[in-house]
Amino acid sequence: MTTLFIRYPSRASIDSGAAQACPFALVGDGGNLLQQGTSPLGNLSDMVASARRVTLLLAASDVTLLRVKAPPLSSAKLKAALPALVEEHVLGDPDDCVLAASAADDEGMRTVAVVQRAWLEVLVKALVAQGAHAVSAVPSQLALPFQPGAVSAALVPGDAGYDVVMRQSQFEGLGMTLPAQPQTALQTLRALAGEQPLTLYVSAAQKTQFAPLAAEIPHLTLEEDHWAHWIAAARGAGLDLASGIANSDASARAWQRWRWPLRIGVLALLVNVVGLNIEWFRLKGEAKAVGQSMVQTFKSVYPNEPLVAAPQDQMRRNIRLAKANSGEAGGDEFVTLSAAFGEALGVLPRKDIIANLEYKDHALLVKVKPNTVDASAVQLLREALAGRKLEMQEPTPGAWRIAPVAAGAKS
Q: 237 and 340, same structural domain?
């Protein structure tokens, strides 16, 4: 997963009619720089669509940072209160602006970023139209390294001059456009920084040009500009101006991508549900037909006997009673089981092992006297019973349950 960072030029440069060349950097989740360069925004469609997130670094001159005091409010109430909090600091209607507030500090002060809504909406929607999955917009002044007790600044060459980016504290910064005059630009930055040390980030070519001039200005340090510090600072900026604009459009595009797969999934589910119901009704009809056939068979055999249970159970009981009346004992009757068990006991050296004998649920329940049989004797008895198609279970030590072998079971 990757993030595409784009430093968008100031509106002053765009209004001048020059090509909108945007420095960009494609970064992996681990912070490793995968690709960088400069290109018009319209030529970045492939990168925009492939990146997990697009982060716009808005020109500092296009974003105003205000420090306001706000009472403790929930996110929803703070969003509703922001226009009133910044009204006296903004020229025009606050509703025409996008507002984003930082977390409150110990004194209850918040930084509110203000940018023109119509301009930012066009920019964000253009990225969404290119396939951006998620868009965030961060003021460039908060994407400079933060050095407590010092000021960070950058001079970005543009068609309208130098785009100045300055960060004065964690949530304070400014931006402006200055004429392309190195000496004047350095003196202006020095004056804006006051008495605090100033670190100025410039390109390698600019550093060579500015070095002799910077040597004459006190407390001014030149550093080579690179993407690493912009990326690190942007990730911890704590402000996202695009949160109220990009989410709805990106969500709509995400829904459009999933619309047909979801429709196909719902259709497949509907087909399966209908098929299962049809099969259930078919099986229910077959079961009803089989039940009626069994009832008719029972009534044909026993026309004068009322049906008080399931036909197969009542017929099984009648057959068992008929066998008993004719002198034929069933395999699970007490007489049959006890006789077979007595015969099987003949394989044991001792016959006086039975403490209690009970017949229950078509099985013999035998309790054995303690210390009268060992494991080998139990195995001999089990084999003898198996030869008579009986099985012996031992639910608890010394307690046997003897019953006919179930149909289909191996003896």
A: no
